[in-house]
Amino acid sequence: MKDYLNSLIEQVQRVDAAGIALHVLVAAAIGFVIYLSYYLAHAGTVYSRKFNVSLVVLTVLTATVMAVIGNNIALSLGMVGALSIVRFRTAIKDSRDTVYIFWAIVGGLACGVGDYTTAGIGSAAVFLVLLALGRIKNENRVLLIVRGERSTANRIKAAVSTYYDNRVNLRVENTTENTVELIYELSRAAMKKKQKEVETVTDVLYKIENISYVNLVTQDDDIAG
C-alpha cells in the first residue's frame, strides 16, 4: 500500500515538445477569444489594453503550469505552496474583470490538460453570453443635486416637483445648521421630455435666492458626469 501511494506521488506524466506546443497554441487561441470579448464588452467605456493583454498571457501561463504539473501530486502540492507566497494587491475596478480573470484561468487549465473540447465549447458559451448581455441596455438614471441655504429647502422641493410633474424621487436630503443638499433621481425619459422646454431645471432653480450649485450627474454602473 505504501509503495502504491509513493508511486502515485512520484509518477510524472511525460509530455513531448509537440504536445506542449499544442497546449500553448490552443491556450493562446482561447486567450485571443477572451481578448476580443473584453474589447467588445468595454467599447465606449474605460478600456485597459494592458489588462486585456494580461488575460491572454494568463491563459498561456496557466496552460504551461498545468503541462509542467501533469498528474504529479508532489509537484502540484509544491506549486501550490510556491504560489501561496504571492499576494495580489491589484484592485478590481470593474466586477466584470473578475469574470474575465476566472475565464482565463479555467481556459488555461483545460488547455493544459489537453481538454480542448471543453475549453472551446466553454469559451464559446461564455463569449456569447457576455456578448448578448452586453447588448441589453439599462436605462441610466440621472441624479439632480441641489445645494443652497437651509431656508430654501421647501422652495427647491416645490420647484423640482413642479418642473418634472412629480416624476422625480427625492433620495437624499443632507442638512447642516445653515445649508441643505437635496439629491433627486429621475429617468432619462423625464429628462428628454423637458429638453424642448425653454427654461431648464437649472434656470428655474437659480431663480431661487441663495442657491450654491445645481449639478446633473449620469448614474450607471459607474458614476460619470
Automatic annotation (TrEMBL):
Q: Which UniProt keywords apply?
A: Membrane, Transmembrane, Transmembrane helix
Q: Which residues cross the membrane?
A: 20-41, 53-80, 100-133
What domain of life is recorded for the organism? Bacteria
Protein's recorded name? DUF4956 domain-containing protein
Q: What is the lineage of its organism?
A: Bacteria, Bacillati, Bacillota, Clostridia, Christensenellales
